[in-house]
């Protein structure tokens, strides 16, 4: 009977050990199944963070460009305010499209003058054609 009790105790211990091993195996299997999911979640978070970082860089660049354009606009406004004498009656009467064209890109001006000029006997543009050339060059610069 002692042998039988000893066998029962051994079987009971083995059963307990087997159950414990089975639970450990199930837990390990569950963890092994969850690990790829966890890795995929972490990879997606890293991807989102890198996208956010690159988006933030783009936003910062856009803000920097907008500030630079704003400063250029403010400088232009300041120059216009400082140079308001050009709108005086004397300056408007003395306005010459030729003088205005002389302050622009010579290649563009010559190209437009060539297009506007259809009388090849003279190199001098009429006042109307000179004004049209000035308007055209201004349109090119404004575009």
Residues in helix, % = over 70%
- Which consecutive residue ranges, at least 5 long each, have pLDDT under 50? none
Number of strands: 0
What is the count of distinct domains?
A: 2
Give me the Rg, rounded: 43 Å
Distance between the termini: 108 Å
The total count of helices amounts to 5
Q: Assign the structural class, choosing from mainly alpha, mainly beta, alpha/beta, alpha+beta, or little secondary structure.
A: mainly alpha
Which strand-content bin applies to the residues?
under 5%
| Helix and strand pattern | HHHHH
Mean pLDDT across every amino acid position:
79
Q: What global shape is seen?
A: rod-shaped
Give the biggest sheet: none
Record the SSE blueprint.
Elements: H1 2-82, H2 89-93, H3 97-102, H4 106-116, H5 127-142
Give a verbal description of the structure:
By secondary structure, this protein is mostly helical. The chain has two domains: 1-85; 96-143, no CATH class. The chain is 83% helix and 0% strand. The chain has five helices and no strands. The chain has helices at 2-82, 89-93, 97-102, 106-116, 127-142. The longest helix is centred in the N-terminal third of the chain and has 81 residues, at 2-82.
Concise description?
Helix content is 83%, strand content 0%. It is built from five helices and no strands.
What features would you highlight for this structure?
single chain, 83% helix, mainly alpha, 5 helices, 143 residues, 2 domains
């Amino acid at each position: 009977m002692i042998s039988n009790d000893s066998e029962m105790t051994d079987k009971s211990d083995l059963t307990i050990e087997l159950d414990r091993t089975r639970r450990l195996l199930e837990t390990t299997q569950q963890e092994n199944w969850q690990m790829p999911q966890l890795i995929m979640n972490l990879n997606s978070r890293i991807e989102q963070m890198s996208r956010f970082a690159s988006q933030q860089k783009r936003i910062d660049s856009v803000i920097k460009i907008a500030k630079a354009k704003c400063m250029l606009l403010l400088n232009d406004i300041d120059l216009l305010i400082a140079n308001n004498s050009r709108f005086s009656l004397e300056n408007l009467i003395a306005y010459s499209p030729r003088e205005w064209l002389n302050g622009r890109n010579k290649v563009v001006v010559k190209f437009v003058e060539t297009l506007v000029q259809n009388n090849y006997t003279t190199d001098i543009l009429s006042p109307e054609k000179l004004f049209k050339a000035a308007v055209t060059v201004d349109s090119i610069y404004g575009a």
